[in-house]
Amino acid sequence: MNIGEVAERTGLPAKTIRYYEDIGLVTPAREANSYRVFSEIDAHKLQFLGRARALGFSIEDCRNLLALWEDQDRASADVRAIAQEHLDEIEAKIKGLTEMRNTLADLVQSCAGDKRPDCPILKGLEGP
Amino acid sequence: MNIGEVAERTGLPAKTIRYYEDIGLVTPAREANSYRVFSEIDAHKLQFLGRARALGFSIEDCRNLLALWEDQDRASADVRAIAQEHLDEIEAKIKGLTEMRNTLADLVQSCAGDKRPDCPILKGLEGP
DNA sequence: CTTGACCTTCCCATAACTGGAACCCCTATG
DNA sequence: CATAGGGGTTCCAGTTATGGGAAGGTCAAG
């Protein structure tokens, strides 16, 4: 199938798929007219990539996961290590964002939000 | 004061401060030897920027907040609107990350993590 | 005088795309 | 048959907010 069809099937933009080819994540065949031809396997790989990216795995993580996915002899522990590491990163991000949110929510709460120039948010941003 | 001192005082890397000058967030004076000279006001602005960035405000948000900070006649509502919008963004991010974490935690949990090639994480990534 | 710590500008690189220009290919229609 | 449209192709540049490093000027101390 051509790039448009695989884009629709996987939900990935064509641009992104070309980019994934550029960096070697997929290697579709070519027709005589230089159009890319995607096999079912290519489409499946792209599906996999889309899901993994949606779960926040980096491209490099995806490359590793894809290699493991294609390796019939992989150990599930290898996959789990990548996923666990990523899980830890996500939890750290959530923690940081939650702190941010709390600080910011305090500032917003303390602000009257009226026409007066006095603003506790700006004061809060000046420093502790 | 020179860039090194202001960097130490604000906790921002000198590189970042030069970048902030580049994009017009601060405009330090220059000495005859072309060294930047930062006033107390410049240092205070950078402090403000550092805090706002640490709370995840984008550079453009910072630019707006800085303008409001310098405007004696601003209405606190203007500031609050920016902060509230950013707060909403942060909460959306937290929500998305939390969903990610839950999905991923399920996958990790279901994986034996041993030497067998059978891996539910990869299966989960293939699609629903 | 030299050493070392500063400072300067300039250019390149990151992650993961996205947009746009300029151009080729194929088919359907007036 | 010309053309309009909707594919496709490559390549180049831009995005965010810096970080790295080269090549070189400046300054205070020993």
From TrEMBL, chains A, B:
PROSITE patterns, A to Z: HTH_MERR_2 (PS50937)
Coiled-coil spans in chain: 80-107
Record's GO cellular component terms: cytoplasm
Keywords: Coiled coil, Cytoplasm, DNA-binding, Transcription, Transcription regulation
Main location: cytoplasm
A Pfam entry, by short name: MerR-DNA-bind
UniProt keyword DNA-binding present: yes
NCBIfam families: CueR
Identification of the protein by name: Cu(I)-responsive transcriptional regulator
Source organism per UniProt: Yoonia sediminilitoris
